[in-house]
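Researcher: Good morning. I'm working through a list of sequences from a screen, and I'd like to move beyond sequence-only analysis. For each chain I'm collecting a predicted structure so we can compare shapes side by side. This is the next one on the list. No need for commentary yet; just the structure.
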Amino acid sequence: MTVTHTEAFVEYLRRGTPIRLSLKQAGITDQYVWRTLRDERVRPSHRMNGGRVFSWSDPPATGHPGEDYNCRCEAVPFVAGETEFGFHEFTTSLASSYDRWINRDFVRHYYNGGGRAVALLEIGHLREIAEQYAYGDGAEGAFRRLADQIANEARASGAGSLSYDFGAPYDFGDIAFSHGDGVVRGIFIGRVDDRGAMLRISGETIFEFRDIFEDPLDVGIEAGGTPYPITGNWTARFSAEVMKDAGRSEYGGVGGR
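Model: Good morning. Structure tokens for this chain:
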């Protein structure tokens, strides 16, 4: 009887040490890829884990898939060169030493700031904006959708250097009413390596945020102050291995969710 990778991995968890050597020889370790259902019910903290490789012996802060109450996420046994993964990881520090602005601070600057631009770091909103964009937007977060887009660009370009630019407006009103819609634009710069049936993708993405504060009363008219730009930027490293065949892939293909 042929034992599948999954069956062998389950046996590994049940019995432990006695079969670890044979699993290692088969290319299987105690690692797994965290997969989510990519819908609005997924916790933001679990979206952050999505596509990453973890070890059963070294759980993430959230615990393993299925351990949180009502968690529907899946742990897919990781086999090097066979199992897809893909994730963004912030490379810019999102910490802020500044006091966080609230709505009255935005209004005060509108009347007294003379139109001076302010940065997200300056007003204490950089982390919230970056994480809302990455993990909170829509049903799955922009990072997961961007992984699909980069994967498709990699398939189209093949091995070698790769760049991909993008941009769209997003609703950041849950962070502060004064934000409303803001535009996030960016560019991914990296490379693609041919790994047989798979493509290895690595590189960094630069993100730029821009908004204009111009209507403090939300009535569609300027109320005697001076509109001003709100800007910000951050970077994230992207790492992935995806199937060349989009129809078999979790990333960007018709077979993905």
